[in-house]
Write a structure and sequence with these properties.
The chain has helices spanning 4-10, 21-33, 43-50, 54-66, and strands at residues 37-38, 70-72, 78-80. The chain is mainly α. The protein has a 3-stranded antiparallel beta sheet with strand order 1-3-2. The longest helix is centred in the first third of the chain and has 13 residues, at 21-33.
Length: 86
């Protein structure tokens, strides 16, 4: 199963993905609850907390990346960039 850690590892190439607003919001809420940072250690828990299936997670992460709401860090983690997360 692809997890957020896998998506981080492959570098998330920008793609034209139309993830639903509800899925995006669920993933944002889960990442915010995890302290705004997704790591290899917490990626599975973040995905489960979002309540999304594998494809929905993939699409939502890609949409957030395309919108500039997440950035990849040098250590391979993914940081959410919203009003609640800087």
């Amino acid at each position: 199963m692809r997890t957020l850690a896998f998506l981080i590892a492959v570098g998330l190439t920008a793609t034209a993905v139309n993830a639903g607003q509800a899925e995006n919001a669920a993933l944002i809420a889960a990442i915010e609850a995890a302290g705004c940072l997704v790591t290899a250690e917490n990626s599975g828990a973040v995905a489960r907390a979002a309540g999304l299936n594998e494809q929905q997670v993939y699409d939502a992460v890609a949409a957030l990346y395309d919108a500039g709401l997440v950035r990849l860090e040098a250590d391979g983690s993914m940081r959410l960039i919203t009003g609640s997360c800087q």
